[in-house]
């Protein structure tokens, strides 16, 4: 076991400092969040110091991100962290969602507002790209499941609709590296965020010439690929900028504290649920492709073999329809009401668009089961049971692909917003027939902070797990309650299979 003194941050001159303050800029698709992490005597404490709402905006039919508002939030976050500390933070790191990006000209100016992944332009050109590079070839070349939201589809659509971009663009940068660059870091791309683009080799060791050639993306646009958990540069005020993994899920997985070679199931639960397995290297066989899995790089250089699943988006949309912001009260009521005994498919296209979610869920159930939930409480319970059953289906798919590398008795690690929910972990444990270890809701920010500590030499990566055990108290959940009886979830999964096979 590493001692507490060995965890303390050291200066470059060999002296010892009492503490290190790392600012995680956790940028989501609806908010700029700043979480200040303070490292003292082998533990990390966190505090949210700033939050700013933002959203994609419709710019004459094109869905874009308001980067000026995002950068204003980033700068205000640094100011607020400085005010709280009485001095500048020691380091900062940026994580965002995947696949979106900015395009810079030769002067380093942004050519236009970054496009949002929900913009519809890709649907007009996706079939053309699939003919230019087949999904099987794209999978072999990148390890990433071909999907229209992927960066490669976005860039292909950009170039088809504006061919002059070939000459006007000097640099392509994914969002976290774009923000870091605007703060003062050189134009480089971390391997974790690069792996989400569909443009990099499996493991993101280099850009894929074959895929970029088929998509018409000039190689001269692409900055060097570099390791994560490394120093990226400094701000104009002299604050160290760290590349923490770039992608919010990479940071969340970093906060599990697993050793490099540990193969474990995880769920990062939020608006999306990302269920995956930590594996040491890309899995590129046909079984993984058929299972809809994708190989994304972890902050430590390993692989997140995962699948996206619609998550609390369903509940959030219901709350919007009901005008009911109190999630805790809804979950409590859901735990006290009877189960409908059926589940929906969260990934059905019916649920992808916003609006009228309670009615959509009721219609889906009436059509397939001839029953429907009665009121908000039963609707919420149905959503949670449906997510748990989907977790079970995808966990089984991962187990089948990974095989004996994955211990069938090992627990699933659940982090993110779902860790705040009192029912979802127990339901997931019952549906998956596995224990669930519930970690921190702040996993992305905490993983970002840990990567900063490692990058600047404050924390030995081998001690990450011990620091997490000191800093976070995970809770292990089993399927021990009658309301989360595994047999009832098995029956609901069977009814769903029968209903959707018709």
UniProtKB/TrEMBL annotation:
Keywords per UniProt: ATP-binding, Carbohydrate metabolism, Kinase, Nucleotide-binding, Rhamnose metabolism, Transferase, Xylose metabolism
Enzyme class, spelled out: transferase
CDD domains for the chain: ASKHA_NBD_FGGY_RhaB-like
Carbohydrate kinase FGGY N-terminal domain ranges (all copies): 22-238
Domain Carbohydrate kinase FGGY C-terminal: start-end pairs: 266-453
Biological processes per GO annotation: D-xylose metabolic process; rhamnose catabolic process
GO molecular function: ATP binding; rhamnulokinase activity
Cross-referenced Gene3D superfamilies: 3.30.420.40
EC number: 2.7.1.5
Similarity-based family: Belongs to the FGGY kinase family.
Protein name: Rhamnulokinase
Organism: Actinomyces viscosus
């Amino acid at each position: 076991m590493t001692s507490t003194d060995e965890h303390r941050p050291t200066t470059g001159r060999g002296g010892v400092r009492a503490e290190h303050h790392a600012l995680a800029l956790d940028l989501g698709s609806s908010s700029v969040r700043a979480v200040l992490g303070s490292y003292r005597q082998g533990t990390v404490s966190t505090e949210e110091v700033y939050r700013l709402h933002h959203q994609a905006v419709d710019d004459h039919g094109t869905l874009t991100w308001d980067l000026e508002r995002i950068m204003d939030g980033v700068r205000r976050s640094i100011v607020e962290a400085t005010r709280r500390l009485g001095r500048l933070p020691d380091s900062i790191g940026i994580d965002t969602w995947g696949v979106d990006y900015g395009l810079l000209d030769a002067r380093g100016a942004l050519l236009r507002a970054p496009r949002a992944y929900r913009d519809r332009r890709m649907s007009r050109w996706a079939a053309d790209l699939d003919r230019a590079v087949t999904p099987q070839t794209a999978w072999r070349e990148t390890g990433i499941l071909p999907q229209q939201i992927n960066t490669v589809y976005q860039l292909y659509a950009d170039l088809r609709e504006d061919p002059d971009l070939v000459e006007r663009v000097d640099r392509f940068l994914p969002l976290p590296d774009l923000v870091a660059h605007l703060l003062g870091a050189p134009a480089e791309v971390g391997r974790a965020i690069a792996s989400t683009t569909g443009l990099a080799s499996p493991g993101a060791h280099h850009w894929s010439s074959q895929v970029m050639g088929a998509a018409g993306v000039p190689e001269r646009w692409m900055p060097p690929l570099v390791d994560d958990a490394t120093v990226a540069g400094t701000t104009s005020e002299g604050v160290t900028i760290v590349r923490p993994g770039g992608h919010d899920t990479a940071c969340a997985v970093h906060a599990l504290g697993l050793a490099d070679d540990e193969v474990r199931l995880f769920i990062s639960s939020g608006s999306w649920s990302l269920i995956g397995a930590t594996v040491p290297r890309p899995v590129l066989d046909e079984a993984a492709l058929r299972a809809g899995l994708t190989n994304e790089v972890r902050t430590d250089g390993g692989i997140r073999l995962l699948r996206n699943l619609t998550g609390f988006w369903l509940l959030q949309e219901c709350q919007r329809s009901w005008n009911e912001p109190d999630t805790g009260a809804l979950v409590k009521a859901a735990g006290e009401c009877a189960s409908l005994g059926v589940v929906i498919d969260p990934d059905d296209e019916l649920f992808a668009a916003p609006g009228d979610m309670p009615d959509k869920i009721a219609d889906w159930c009436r059509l397939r089961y001839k029953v429907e939930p009665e009121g908000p409480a039963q609707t919420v319970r149905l959503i949670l049971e449906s997510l748990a059953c989907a977790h079970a289906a995808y966990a089984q798919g991962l187990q089948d692909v990974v095989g004996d590398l994955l211990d069938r008795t090992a627990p699933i690690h659940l982090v993110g917003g779902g860790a705040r929910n009192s029912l979802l972990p127990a339901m997931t444990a019952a549906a998956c027939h596995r224990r669930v270890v519930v970690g921190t809701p702040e996993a992305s920010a905490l993983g970002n902070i840990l990567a900063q500590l490692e990058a600047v030499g404050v924390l030995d990566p081998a001690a990450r797990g011990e620091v997490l055990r000191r800093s976070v108290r995970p809770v292990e959940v089993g399927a021990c309650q009658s309301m989360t009886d595994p047999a009832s979830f098995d029956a609901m999964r069977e009814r769903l299979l029968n209903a959707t096979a018709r």
